[in-house]
Amino acid sequence: MLKHANKSSRKKNCGLAAVEFLITLPILFTLLAGIAEVGNAFITYNTINKMVQHAARYSVVDIYGTSGSSDVADYSVIRNMVVYGNAAGTGDAMVTDLTTSDVGITEAGNYVTITVNYTYQPMMGAFNSTIDFAVPLNASAMMYTGGATP
Q1: What's the half-sphere exposure (Cβ side, CA atoms, 13 Å) at 71?
Q2: Inter-residue contact 47 to 95 (CB < 8 Å)
Q3: Of 71, 73, 76, 72, whose CA–CA distance to 88 is shortest?
Q4: Contact 102, 79 (CB under 8 A)
Q5: pTM, whole model, 2 decimals?
Q6: Which of 42, 88, 134, 141 could pair with 56 as two cysteines, CB 3.0-4.6 Å apart?
Q7: By C-alpha distance, which of 150, 143, 149, 148 is closest to 57?
Q8: Within a 10 A sphere around the Cβ of 137, how many other Cβ atoms?
Q9: What is the DSSP letter of 112?
Q10: 97 dihedral zone (left: phi>0; alpha: psi -120 to 50; beta)
Q11: pLDDT, tens digit, 9 for 90 and up, residues 94-112
Q12: Ranges for the TadE-like domain (predicted)?
């Protein structure tokens, strides 16, 4: 009779473990989705940061040392370099929903600063429209344009 009581107790424990697992499953999925979103936001920020650095170098590469003034490349070409990765502005944007209007260019003294203000929209924001999960990502790079010694 003792063996029969142990089997019954085991079945109850297995059922209890299944219920506990079902309760914790949504929490685990939420944590995994959050980790994936943070990783995706980090990759997006890193991509934007590298695009801005590349465009800053491009903005002075043909100008540097050719004149005494602090000239930079054409602003529309610099914006195309940031968004599309090429001077012509052909192809798809390298980051979803990034446009040339998100790119700012500032010249001050012998320096040019290129800035991108981008709003990252995580996928989990699509599930609930009352909460805004948008994250602003801002990246900038400064480059010496030439002219007088800094």
Answers
A1: 11
A2: yes
A3: 76
A4: no
A5: 0.76
A6: 141
A7: 143
A8: 20
A9: E
A10: left
A11: 998 999 999 999 988 888 8
A12: 15-57
